[in-house]
Amino acid sequence: MRIGDREGLEAVTFRRLAAELSVTPMAVHHHVSDRDGLHTEMLAALLDAFDVLAGIDPVLPWAEQLRGALLSLHAFNRCHPVLAQLLLSDAPRPPVVFRTTERFIGLLLKAGFPPQMAVEVARIIIHQHDGLLLVEAGSARAGHTSGAAARQAELRLLELPANEFPSVVAFSQQISRLDLDNWRDLATDITVRGLTALLAAL
After folding, report:
1. b/e map of 156-181 (b: 16 or more CB within 10 Å)?
2. In the CATH hierarchy, which fold is given to the domain comprising 2-200?
3. pTM passes above 0.85
4. Which member of 19, 44, 49, 107 has the greatest number of CB atoms within 10 A?
5. What is the mean pLDDT of residues 187-202?
């Protein structure tokens, strides 16, 4: 897990694990047969004790519980950047992965969403945030975007024809830099406010 968090999922190979554990690659294969199996075991170990609603007061309004759950997911992802890559891999899902799905569906049903909509909304929340977590994890692993890299990205945007991309050129500095805290808070607010409005319109 430490290798994945520090260097990304692509660095987690049987050869690398064997070297870290001072064993042969065949010894690792004895426990996990292939790469997908390895990723499944990593997910199981990572999420075994994680509950997205842990520590959130159940008497809070559903929208505030949802906000707390999403922030909890982001906080966990910052501790384990490899999580987002694992969730987007093709590895079979261990049962613990579905604990978050269970929590979101239960929360949405409690809020008053019809069952079918609660399932679809939970699916949308999870898939949207998988993508957000991947971007956040990449930036966190890189120590946020370095000043030099951000400046290079900005200069590339400034080379675009302003008559065709006026907004991109005008906001090139902001686009080329990522404030992870602002990103997290805005994404969470969009989700919570949007679902609150959706429920009110039913």
Report:
1. ebeeeeeeeeeeebeebeeebebebe
2. Tetracycline Repressor; domain 2 (1.10.357)
3. no
4. 107
5. 96
